[in-house]
TrEMBL record:
Domain (HTH araC/xylS-type): residue spans on this chain: 214-295
PANTHER family referenced in this protein's UniProt entry, alphabetically: ARAC-FAMILY TRANSCRIPTIONAL REGULATOR (PTHR43130), HTH-TYPE TRANSCRIPTIONAL REGULATOR RV1931C (PTHR43130:SF3)
Pfam families: DJ-1_PfpI (PF01965), HTH_18 (PF12833)
Name recorded for this polypeptide: AraC family transcriptional regulator
Record keywords: Transcription, Transcription regulation
GO molecular function: DNA-binding transcription factor activity; sequence-specific DNA binding
Xref: CDD domains: GATase1_AraC_1
Keyword tRNA processing attached: no
Organism: Micromonospora maris
Length: 307
């Protein structure tokens, strides 16, 4: 699965680090081979909350499957350089080799200094967005996102949104069922920034308190590539088909079938983005051919352009 390397800068925010680290730790506890490393330019880093943390000064060898995560730090918009040029070159080299670079909150400023935001969409904390856009005009800073992923550069908004981004990365890499289990374990179904968009269907439609609907979503998350008749899902929930449809709509605004279709399209988009042909991606997520996938992708694009 790969290594997750956290780059720790002086005055880093603890939750920027701890939130995503908890997600990847939970993934490792689930049996995935995620190994976490913590690197810095000095062996001890004092956080913005006053707690000193230890780090390695030597970077591990990185593969394209690895993630490099840059947590935010206090006053990232200052003109002081938080990292040496050699550190910035490491970020650039990892991305150029096919790796993914992630920022939490103000960590986007370091990605901007490394040149990784040029020509890409990104986001950061709402109090930092305007300055990020002024400082890096070649970037497209989006003000209405919890996180943005663009060409293996992933940026997230305010401090706790690093959890949402890490769960999204889990969902696209390993499927929504694993991400849902981790989210449930961490008790983070509710979106902390409810007015902002979020690109993961698994998370977007889990911000409710219906145990019946959660149980059905668990089944759909686990088996979204299969045909799942409504009668079977109603049996899992131990309610009638009519009651399940009513509860599902009240909790998510969707039918069970529409929720399943969104999961399929998300997974297909991930496969297509990694070079899989549309026909093959359609079959891999459970469609008999690519016609339905093309219609659903077109509908999603139309919805996003309107919204």
């Amino acid at each position: 699965m790969g290594r997750v390397v956290f780059l720790l800068l002086p005055q880093l925010h603890l939750l920027d680090l701890a939130g995503p680290a908890q997600v990847f730790s939970a993934a490792a506890d689930s049996g995935l081979d995620y190994r976490q490393s913590f690197v810095a330019e000095s062996s001890e880093v004092v956080t913005a909350q006053g707690l000193p943390v230890r780090a390695d000064v030597d970077w591990p060898d990185l593969d394209p499957a690895d993630l490099v995560v840059v947590p935010g730090w206090r006053s990232p918009a200052s003109r002081a350089e938080p990292a040496q040029p050699a550190t910035l070159r490491r970020l650039v080299a990892h991305h150029a080799a096919g790796g993914t670079v992630v920022s939490v909150c103000g960590g986007a400023y370091l990605l901007g200094r490394a040149g990784l935001l040029a020509g890409r969409r990104c986001t950061t904390h709402h109090e930092l967005q305007d300055e990020l856009a002024r400082r890096y005009p070649a970037a497209t800073v989006l003000n209405d996102r919890l996180y943005v992923v663009d060409d293996r550069v992933a940026t997230s908004a305010g401090i706790a949104s690093g959890i949402d981004l890490a769960l999204h990365l889990m969902a696209v890499r390993h499927g929504p069922a694993l991400a849902a289990r981790i989210a449930r374990e961490m008790v983070v179904y509710a979106r902390r920034n409810g007015h902002e968009r979020q690109d993961s269907a698994m998370l977007r439609y889990r911000s409710h308190l219906s145990d019946v609907v959660h149980r059905v979503q668990d089944v759909i998350d686990e088996r979204f590539t299969e045909a799942l008749p409504l009668v079977e899902l109603a049996g899992v929930a131990r309610v009638s088909e009519r009651t399940l449809t009513r509860l599902f709509d009240a909790s998510t605004g969707l039918t069970p079938l529409r929720y399943q279709q969104l999961l399929r399209v998300e997974r297909a988009e991930h496969l297509i983005g990694h070079g899989v042909a549309v026909e093959a991606a359609a079959r891999a997520v459970g469609f008999t051919d690519a016609r339905m996938l093309r219609r659903l992708r077109a509908r999603a694009r139309s919805t996003h352009s309107v919204g």
